[in-house]
Amino acid sequence: MRTVLFLFLAALSPGQALAANQVALANDVFVERVTTDAQGKQRILLEEPKVVVPGDRLVFVLNYRNAGAQPADKFVITNPLPAAVRFADAGDTRPLVSIDGGRGWGQLDQLTVALNDGTRRAAQPDDVTHIRWAFQKPIPVGGSGKLMFRGVVK
Amino acid sequence: MMKAPVGGAKHQLLPSCSLLALLAAFTLPTQVQAQVATPPLTRAGTTISNTASATFDTGGGSTTINSNRVDLLVDELLDVTVDSSNPADVPTTPGATGQVLTFSVTNTGNGVENFVLSTIANAGGDNYDPVVTQIYIDNGDGVFDPGTDTLYTPGANDPQLDPDESVTVFVVATTPGGVVDGNRGIVSLVAAAVTGTGAPGTSFAGQGEGGGDAVVGSTGADGADAGAFIVSAATVTLVKSAVVTNPLGTADPIPGATITYTIVATVAGSGSVSGLAITDNIPADTSYVTGSITLGGVAQSDAVDADAGDYNGTRINVALGTVAGGQTRTVTFRTTID
Residue B74 is nearest to which of A52, A59, A138, comparing CB atoms? Predict the structure, then answer.
């Protein structure tokens, strides 16, 4: 039965299968390809790329699952942003972000960046170095979910 | 133990969703933002690696696990721009050779690339077609010098540029002899990626720097810009008139009468003439009146000296030098009838 379930999950998840028996985190990256049809309507297709070019919009999808026997408390997912990717948005998942390599954290609209002249400016998506989701309640046994954010290849 | 920050995502228990649902979720409300070109671009051949981690406590203390790693190779984007470096039309004259237009060619892609150069002089929108004779690659000083700059031969020394690197290119042309003042002649310099050009998104498999593909960027992997020559010529017209006075107080040309000649030189056009001189022979049966040459009402000596006028026994001469279009010069001298 477990084997069957495992295969089932593998079929659902486009990338890495979530490992059984433990808490697992799977990472998939898609590229948004925008096409315009004959009526001028734009369609956005998500493709799993092997190669990208600067300017491509990437969608990072993180699937987590508590397949262990205990609830997972103080659950925090952290994704350091690859250096060649500029953060764009995280949909409505409201992550914490860091703009200083993971030392300080906050909502993007609450962070500021020190300028050379001593003043501070509001942090921009460009400044983001890390993205983090901190869960306030434990992930129960069998609980799962997905998180996402977008970035642009610099 | 790791201190989880407060205020992050609310605990969500989303059902394990299928790829189809995922696609639908992202397809609907996403607004497409304009791609902002923020140089420098990620270099072709770079691998983008993404790994996330999860930290949690299942009762036995804090545990951290890593996700799988996703690697993406950055392809080479083929992009180039050409800009005219001449702030205004470059003045030229009919028949002039070695007339120079200056351009700058910039690799706006993300990989090292060679660019083939060509010119278009017959695209219209102007009055004449400059005859392009050579293209030179600047040696770095930004100043055209055929002795130190490199003569360009297509296919032989197509300039190789790193990402964001620019090179100055000189287009040398001859102005046809038949053009007239105010005529404009346009020359466009075209630069095209040697790997290939085409519609944005066109891909050249395996030809990108770093082992990936080469993909045509938003410029189509070719660029062009126009520079222009403007013909700045001038023409000279001379009008000569004579007034006779005699001791009788009449205007009859009797022996002993004085003839005052006036020569007006008018220069027209947007250019100027240089080395302009007015020379007039003293007519037979008349005698030059010593010291009678004037230029603009100012008396000139008969000797060849610092002033502009002289008389050598048979003719008067007034050297006017360089005179710009729109100006006139008036020369007078007198003779008596023998």
Answer: A52
Closest to B261 (Cα-Cα) out of B233, B286, B237, B236:
B286
- Euclidean distance between CA atoms A154 and B13, whole angstroms: 33
Q: Do the beta carbons of residue B53 and residue A76 sit within 8 Å?
A: no
- The residues with which B114 forms a beta bridge, in sequence order, are B160
Q: Are A25 and B66 in contact (CB under 8 A)?
A: yes
CB pairs under 8 A between A and B: 203
Cβ distance B130 to B173 under 8 Å? yes
How many angstroms separate the CA atoms of B33 and B114, rounded? 31
Q: What's chain A's average pLDDT?
A: 85
Measured distance CA(B82)–CA(B188) in Å, rounded? 9
B325 touches A at CB < 8 Å: no
What digits encode the pLDDT tens for the residues B128-181? 999 999 999 999 999 999 999 999 999 999 999 999 999 999 999 999 999 999
Task: Write out chain A residues lying below 8 Å of B33, CB-based.
Answer: 57, 88
B213 touches chain A (CB under 8 A): yes
pLDDT at A14: 43
Residues of A in contact with B55 (CB under 8 A): 74-78
User: What is the predicted pLDDT for the residue at B39?
Assistant: 57
Nearest to A55 among B17, B35, B69 (CB): B35
**Which run of H or E residues covers position A3?**
helix A2-12
User: DSSP readout, A64-90?
Assistant: EEE-SSS-BEEEEEEEEPPTTEEEEE-
Nearest by CB to A78, from B10, B52, B62: name it: B52
Question: CA-CA-CA-CA torsion for B148, B149, B154, B156, nearest 10 degrees?
Answer: 40
For residues A148 and A91, the answer to whether their CB atoms sit within 8 Å is yes
pTM greater than 0.80: no
User: Is the model's pLDDT at B235 over the cut of 50?
Assistant: yes
Question: How much is the ipTM here?
Answer: 0.82
Query: CB under 8 Å to B36, separation ≥6 — which residues?
Result: none
pLDDT tens per residue, range B12-61: 434 443 444 444 444 444 444 444 444 589 999 999 999 999 999 988 88
